Amino acid sequence: MYWQEEDERITPSVPDDVVDLVFAIAAKTLPLDHAYSLSQAVKEILPWLAEEEGAGVHTIHVAESGNGWMRPNEANAILHPSRRTKLRVRVPKHRIEEGKNLTGKTLELDGHPVTVKEVSVKLLSDHPTVFSRYIVTEGFETETEVLEEMVKQLKAMGIKPKKMLCGTETIIATPEKEIKTRSLMLADLSVEESVMLQMKGLGSHRWLGCGLFIPHKDIKEVKE
Question: Considering the entire predicted model, what is its pTM?
Fold first, then answer.
């Protein structure tokens, strides 16, 4: 008898060139649209963040805002973080120790204090489906236009997207102007493509949480 099992797949290891610093936080309430105030508070402590390639600040999401595809409609809505709610800051490897300087600080988000507590370092994911809550879409009116532009940008990075899905439109308020964004999901990426997209991001305004990708459940579940 000759019996050969299927070759074991070798999964490339995820590099640590860019990581997420995951901070526990203590906060009673948060404003729904806190992207600008959070970025400003973080940049006061980490002034290099806006100019550092690969760096960005994830907005803080809690149960009321779901996974980014559904969120309250009221502009002045208030969120109530749980003890499991985290603050995530994406940084390149050489900024990890400096990024930990957020630990012990209290960030003021439009009158809502957020105390930053212990931190852990998390590698990016090798998941084939990734999701960005906010992709800047200024200059594009329709979902088709947005997707066509994203395909161009992805191919310029060497990524060949197979499945993409646009989600909700969100306006991020800043003192200068309102920034129009959409959520975006990509599926069936290779490990290398998934990691590269998380490391490099897509589009502009990383310091506002835009263009940052995280692993997500399968795209079929979302469509259903």
Answer: 0.85
